[in-house]
Predict the structure.
Amino acid sequence: MNTWNRKDLLGIDGMELWEIEMILDAAKAFKGVGERSLKKVPALRGRTLVNFFVEPSTRTRVSFELAAMRLSADVVNMSTSASSLQKGETLKDTAKNLEALHADMIVLRHSSPGSCRFLADRLQASIINAGDGAHEHPTQALLDSFTMREHLGSLAGKKVGIVGDILFSRVARSNIHTLRKLGAEVFLIGPTTLVPRSFESMGVRVCHCLDDVIGELDVINLLRIQHERQRKEYFPSLGEYTALFGLTKARAVRLREGCLIMHPGPINRGVEIDSDVADSARSVILEQVTHGLAVRMAVLYLCAGGKGVPA
Ligand code: NCD
């Protein structure tokens, strides 16, 4: 029997398959809690969690906050504009101060890749990566795979297309690691500038024409263009991007029956996905958000000392 023994969740790269499966199985148990009229369990009673977001967020921050509350933890939210980082304090000093205030867990979103690992190596508190630059966003990938498994069962051999700005996407990186470990076939689809062939070394297929593969996919996951991380123009215009890589109504007709339409949010309607397609019956975009809560409860529970899937 495997026993969970990590204090931190920094990324999917380097995790064992059984660890990923333990999180997904624990999330299944916590999904049931969210469906009860009394949505709280005492697992983290007496623990303090600080949500420390140094980059904008809606879904992820609220999701971690609710997940911690449902586990009965005390929760404090911090954002950059209101923190002493603005006054020149270093990330390490800010985090050490949070620990001095007896924070047991810090959920960090930061624009620098490696910032979560940096704190995890220096603090006793658990560090949970809520997105570090273009590096990883592990809970997003876990909730994506959870959603796929709820609909498709085992992901072994399933064809999952991730479309768009792969180069600057932490969601894509964490998804590639998770999906490969779970046995899915991953297609990265987008312009050559945003989907370089070098990704093939991660065991995925690189494809520069969505129309060539759209009819094969069991899942299509559309990504937002990460304008905030790009330092030059990677394609001529948004209109041209949509014409070639957007999930337009005309293109959606060519998806296989049962193909799941996914997006981590925030959606740019009319760019990477047509507005009606985003709201269509095949879209599981809001379900992903709901599942995020269960997955984050599972991650917090395990990193706070839970040894396995809760009964
Ligand atoms: C993603 C992120 O922040 O990386 N959003 C999210 O957490 N759901 C994707 C994005 O910003 O495009």
The longest strand covers residues 126-132. The two ends are 15 Å apart (CA to CA). Residues 59-60, 131, 137, 140, 170-171, 224, 264-265 surround N-carbamoyl-L-aspartate (CB under 6 Å).
